[in-house]
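Collaborator request, handled under Task 6.
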Amino acid sequence: MKPRDVYSSYLLMAGVMCLMLGIGNWIVGALQTAKYQGLLYKTAQTGLEDSYRSFQELDHQKNEELLRRINQDRQRYNAARIRMDFYYVVLSGGRMFFLLGALLTFFALIQIIRQDTLAKVKKLTASPDSPAVTGEP
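Structure tokens returned to the collaborator:
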């Protein structure tokens, strides 16, 4: 098998590219998903909603101040949830690209090995000095 046979196989090159893309997406998706899960856990437990419910009556100014903090926390929570969902899609896509790349690479290597074997068998049977043609061991 010659190196030219390996790098001229479009199937193998597509498989290697999918493998690399899949590994990269898998790593980035796993790291960022874990990061945003921790952020979601922190922002989900602020307890501001409970303190808001404990007030009987609020005037307009206090109501706005309290709701501003609650809304900011909700916005941070929603933004983190959206980013975590995005990175989960990146993680899932990375897994799929990795699997596709592994399959393409596997089948491309089988194809290259098979072609190389057939070429060697054909070369051995076609040469006049081969033991199969002359009958010598």
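The cover message to the collaborator said: "Residues 3-134 form one domain. The CA atoms of residues 29 and 91 lie 4 Å apart. Please let us know whether this matches your experimental observations."
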